Amino acid sequence: MAQLNERPLFVTFEGIDGCGKSTQAFLTHQFLVSRGYKVKLLREPGSTSVAERIREVVLNKRLKMSDLTELFLYEAARAEITSREIAPALDKGTIVLCDRFYDSTTAYQGYGRKLDIRMVKALHKIAVKGVTPDLTFVFDVDLKTAFARLGKSKDRLESQPKAFFKRVRLGFLEIARKERRRVKLIDGTRPVDEVFDNVRKYLLRKLDR
Ligand SMILES: Nc1ncnc2c1ncn2[C@@H]1O[C@H](COP(=O)(O)OP(=O)(O)O)[C@@H](O)[C@H]1O
Ligand SMILES: [Mg+2]
After folding, report:
1. I need a labelling partner for 141 at 20 to 30 A (CA). Which of 18, 120, 174, 198 fits?
2. What is the DSSP string of 61-123?
3. 192 pocket-lining for ligand 1 (C-beta < 6 Å)
4. How many angstroms separate the alpha carbon of residue 21 from the centre of ligand 2?
5. 42 CB under 6 A from ligand 1?
6. Quick one: fold of 10-208?
7. What are the domain boundaries of the chain?
């Protein structure tokens, strides 16, 4: 029987491409379901029909766009997923897991594209209307490891120069440093099971609270 989550949790998975977000989000979903929780796994940008179309545009390597356009597209997709998927699920007592959320935009569009961080964060606020993650994992990996894991087929963002990813990685580290209570920094170069042991530890701490 599904357990009623008295305090639904909103958990996000963050870090550069290839750090292991999707792998860990999947394992977390499996783990929580096996424990009897109601849980929903989403990804950003995407997870609604409009947001999936925005995803196609934003990740299409053949399309050129200004940095500000890119930022607005991510925030538009975020407004969609938040109002139509995340908030209703949390209202029903479902745990929500999201593969990327606004920290990715802070890291990629803020630190990576060098857009003004305060402006970027102000837009998150408008897009999410108070729906903020309770717990965020940042998986840190060096660029060499990340690139080796990604292989050849890269999307528009993944095809950016190395210096861009360096800034993005440092951006995530900065986010983790500034918000230690919410954001847990985990060494993503460790084996999958070991990384997940860390995820589970923080998750259980939050759930048992
Ligand atoms: N801890 C790990 N050690 C080794 N390989 C991993 C690890 N985590 C994920 N991978 C592999 O690296 C690739 C990228 O992982 P993925 O979870 O898709 O990363 P992301 O979603 O952050 O881009 C996949 O092929 C995955 O199987
Ligand atoms: Mg992924």
Report:
1. 120
2. TT----HHHHHHHHHHHHHHHIIIIIHHHHHTT-EEEEES-HHHHIIIIIIIT---HHHHHHH
3. yes
4. 6
5. no
6. Rossmann fold (3.40.50)
7. 10-208
Residue by residue, pLDDT tens for the chain (209 residues) are 445 556 689 999 999 999 999 999 999 999 999 999 999 999 999 999 999 999 999 999 999 999 999 999 999 999 999 999 999 999 999 999 999 999 999 999 999 999 999 999 999 999 999 999 999 999 999 999 999 998 877 788 788 889 999 999 999 999 999 999 999 999 999 999 999 999 999 999 999 87
Q: Are 170 and 114 in contact (CB under 8 A)?
A: no
pTM of the model: 0.95
CA distance 148 to 10: 31
Q: Would the CB of 20 count as within 6 Å of ligand 1?
A: yes
pLDDT, position 7: 65
* Strand-pair category, 39-43 with 10-14: unpaired
Strand partners of residue 39: 95
- Does residue 195 line the site of ligand 1, with CB under 6 A? yes
Q: What three-state secondary structure class fits 144?
A: helix
* Site to substitute for ligand 1 among 29, 44, 141, 149, most atoms within 8 A of C-beta: 149
